[in-house]
Amino acid sequence: MAGVYPMIFRQCAGKRRYLSYVLGDPVTREAVIIDPSVGVLASAMSFLADRGMSLRYVLLTHLPEHELETILQKLRATGPRIVAHESTEYQGVDLRLRDNDVVYFGEETVRVLHTPGQMPCAVTYWWGDRLFTGETLLATGPGVCQQGGNIAQQWRSINDKLLTFPDEYLVFPGRESRKRRVACIAEFRSTLQRKSIRSGTPFQKAKLQDPPDPAGSDGNPTHTTSCSLVGA
Question: Where is this region: Disordered (predicted)?
Answer without folding.
Answer: 199-232
